[in-house]
Amino acid sequence: MSLALSHPTQGRRAAAPSALRALAVTLLGTLALLIQTTTLDARGAPESFADLAEKFSPAVVNITTTTVVEVSTDRRPIVPEGSPFQDFFEDFMDRNGQGQGQGQQQQRPRKSQALGSGFVISEDGFIVTNNHVIEGADEIEVEFFEGFTLPATLVGTDPKTDIAVLKVESDDPLKFVSFGDSDVARVGEWVMAMGNPLGQGFSVSAGIISQRGRALSGIYDDFIQTDAAINRGNSGGPLFNMDGEVIGVNTAILSPNGGSIGIGFSMASNVVSKVVDQLREFGETRRGWLGVRIQNVSEDVAEAMGLEAATGALITDVPEGPSKEAGLESGDVIVSFDNKDIADPDALVRTVGDTEVGKAVRVTVFRDGKTKTLMVTLGRREDAENASMPQSDDDAAVPEEPKSVALMGLTLQPLSDDLREQLGVAAGTDGLAVVDVDESTEAFEKGMRAGDVITEAGQEKVTSVADLEARVEAARDAGRNTVLLLVRRAGEPRFVALGVN
């Protein structure tokens, strides 16, 4: 509706006050109606989910798995060892052929079944579900919305994202759904979940996206949180947007009683689709591997290093691998990977994992007050999963100081052979052992404890208390409030920034 307003004194008499009041009321009413209509349009509440459910339900499946387990056939009463009744019961059961004596119970196979959900992603029968739905299964059956059932074979799994791909053979093309772009999904948008909750058969629930970017326990986690009802049995089912695209795979719920309380989690489709493509092509995942250990850049660490902002991923260790060959060093802060800005360690892990194995990428690091770009050829993470951290080959003698020294709330002593043995430190490792921590100091608040070993300060190696004191003094001279320490505990490195004033 459009309103053309002219000045009241142009070409006509001024309107009477009552007429002006009437016009004002009319305009306010019209404005209120426009605001209400705009609000409803912005919210985008659908009148019904029926069309979506009808169109895409044939691609959603119920999954039944069967696992053969061994169970005991021994039904004898439980009698305490050494009881006067023990011999009596064993003799009685043996005479009746129901036992073979204590500790010799017979086993027989029994089938155990579990239920879950999934969805078809191609007309030739590829199906996506959760790994935990089919893990350890001896048989997998897929029931379709139309009522027919087909046996499925396992194509591949990825426990890190809890995704599995199955394959069924059908004489006729199967109805399927496609992945959408989860990165453009917004908090507050409507979504619809489909699956087989509590084994009750096909079911639909709806809600909104409550939050994005949730992490539960995995290093590749990128969950969409939703209040659409998700229960046991929904695992592996799709989460649709209003265009009918799959933007998530329903995976987990947060609940004190096992039922839905409106906090469900779906693995984002942009994570799932990459995993699915690799499982279909190779039967396994092939993730890029940079070969560094990293930690967050805190505000005090950023200040100690001269970084303008607490962003990036701080390298704590560089074992043998792609990064070491390319020249990356402990203490570097990775600020860009393959021309993508890195906000934190989680972003780096996901970005590297999504990058092709064997690709040469530009890695930009902050080192010694300036940025430096290095070319790194990525390895394969799966090949390096069980690789052990290398031990130092430096057998140089460590200057020993007989007395402990207190500094910054820490009681320190140079590593000796005895201390290395007590702390489980590799032979040849140089540094300062923390033998005590004052609980009233910043060092204790930041997690330092007796048994920690300081190997670097100000990104330079330390072998004596004098070295550490020199690094502290250098930080003061540079106008910094903190000094950055590389601390190892049980072999695991991390950086800690302690105040020097």
Structure overview:
The chain is an alpha+beta fold and 501 residues long. The protein contains twelve helices and 27 strands. β16 and β17 form a beta hairpin. It is elongated. The N and C termini lie far apart (69 Å).
Task: Give the key terms.
501 residues, alpha+beta, seven-stranded antiparallel beta sheet, six-stranded antiparallel β-barrel, 27 strands, disordered N terminus
Return Rg in Å. 32 Å
Q: Please, what is the oligomeric state? A: single chain
What form results from the Cα inertia axes?
A: elongated
Percentage of residues in DSSP E strands? 25-35%
Give the % helix.
Answer: 10-25%
Low-confidence stretches: 1-16, 30-43, 388-402
Q: Would you count the extended β strands for me?
A: 27
Major beta sheet, specifics?
7 strands, antiparallel
Give the overall average pLDDT.
81
Structural class: alpha+beta
Number of helices: 12
- Distance between the terminal alpha carbons, to the nearest Å? 69 Å
